[in-house]
Fold this sequence. Notes:
The structure is a single chain. This protein is an alpha/beta fold. The chain has four helices and eight strands. The strands form two sheets. The protein has a five-stranded mixed beta sheet with strand order 3-2-1-4-5, sandwiched between helices. It has a three-stranded antiparallel beta sheet with strand order 6-7-8, with helices on one face. Helix 2 links the parallel strand 4 and strand 5 (89-92). Helix 3 (94-103) crosses helix 4 (178-190).
Amino acid sequence: MILGIDTSIGTAVAIVDPAGRVRAEAVSSDPRGHAEVIGDLLVRVFGEAGVEPAEITAVAAGMGPGPFTGLRVGIAAARAFALGRGIPVVPVASHDAAARAHVDPAFATAGAAPVEGEPIAIVTDARRRELAVSVYRVENGIPVRIVDPHLVTRASTEPLDLFGTPAAELPETTAISAAALARVAGERLAAGADAADVEPLYLRAPDVTVPAGPKKVGT
């Protein structure tokens, strides 16, 4: 069983079995109250799935892009759970999960069937009048990232490569599926990928910085 946790937009938690079936998923759309709800969501998915914590073999952690405060809540929860169980954390870019949900029949909305070779733009709110954008191409039914996450101003009128329209005019992803995140992680583990420690995708420096040193005081 894989536990998926993502706090890049709202807060999403899910449990997926070894066959990729979703056993339970719980979501809070609040973009700020991650720390307040994540514990309750974890309790809920374990109860709904009828799964004990000892049955979890890996934890998928959504690595963003997303705000510093929100991302670190989910990543800390994933690492704490994994540490307590002695199991690996599998870092997955949240946009990778969104792209997978876009093309996977288990998650995709009606009419959103993938087209081989078709580019997919994942656009999420980065706040401060900016958007986080990643681009994928469908290869053998799977989205493969071809442009890494980057920031674009909402006011930009420059067409996004491969789409011919500004990022702000493309459909915006407003939720990340923790189940899709867990499914991606499970496939990577099955393929022999290492559960490496990857840095979160904040895309911008935090507002708070460490002081360079004590200030000089004149006499």
